[in-house]
Amino acid sequence: RLVGDVPIYVAPGGADHETWPELFLAEGQAGVPPDALGPDGQLWGNPLYDWPAQQRRGYRWWTERLRRTFDLFDLARIDHFRAFVAYWAVASGAETAVDGRWRRGPGRGGVLYAGAANGRRRAVDGRDRGPDDGRQRRHGVVRVRADAARHDDAVLRQGRRGDVRGDGRGG
After folding, report:
1. Four-CA torsion 53, 23, 7, 143, nearest 10 degrees
2. What are the residue ranges of helices labelled H in 118-169?
3. C or N: which end of the chain has fewer Cβ atoms within 10 Å?
């Protein structure tokens, strides 16, 4: 089986960002909050999704992104899947991610719309490589995976040691 890698974000100024600018926020950039290994956090610089705009369009962009992925691969791994639940947003022009803040993602809506439109039983590896930033956010990621699994979409979770579980409960 072939596994396709789908990064949660797109490249700034890349084809997706330039072709559909209305699906991205004009201000802000993606990053990761500070932690013990990175006191300044990580500043990725990727454009942030305008999730309400995505929702108004029935998550069509995500649906097509996964459709094309499934044309080529048996399994899709969405890296940093946790951004469907919450993501770290940093002001444009910031030099570090320290002053970023958590923003709510679309939750299960984005995942379920895209999965349903691509046919049931298509496997998505919901890899959660985000920081262990507290029980509430972690629980939200697990809940989104579990909700998708209840809707007949196989959502796998790769644990920190590489173990894979398909029960929606996490590693």
Report:
1. -10
2. 135-150
3. N
Predicted confidence (pLDDT) per residue in 124-154, tens digit: 555 444 544 544 444 455 555 555 544 334 4
Residue-wise burial string across 51-72, b where 16 or more C-beta atoms lie within 10 A, e elsewhere: beebeeeebebbbebbeebbee
pLDDT of 113 > 90? The answer is no
Residues 144 and 111 sit within 8 Å (Cβ to Cβ): yes
Q: What tens digit of pLDDT does each residue of 44-81 get?
A: 999 999 999 999 998 889 888 888 888 898 877 788 87
Number of neighbouring beta carbons within 10 Å of residue 82? 26
The model's confidence at residue 43, banded by pLDDT at 50, 70 and 90, is: very high
> Which has the closest alpha carbon to 65: 13, 152, 124?
124
Note whether 85 and 139 are within 8 A (CB).
Answer: no
Say if residues 66 and 119 touch (Cβ distance below 8 Å): no
For 119-150, give one letter per residue: b (16+ CB within 10 A) or e: eeebbbbbbbebbeeeeebbebbbebbbbbbe
Distance from C-alpha of 41 to C-alpha of 20, rounded to nearest angstrom: 29
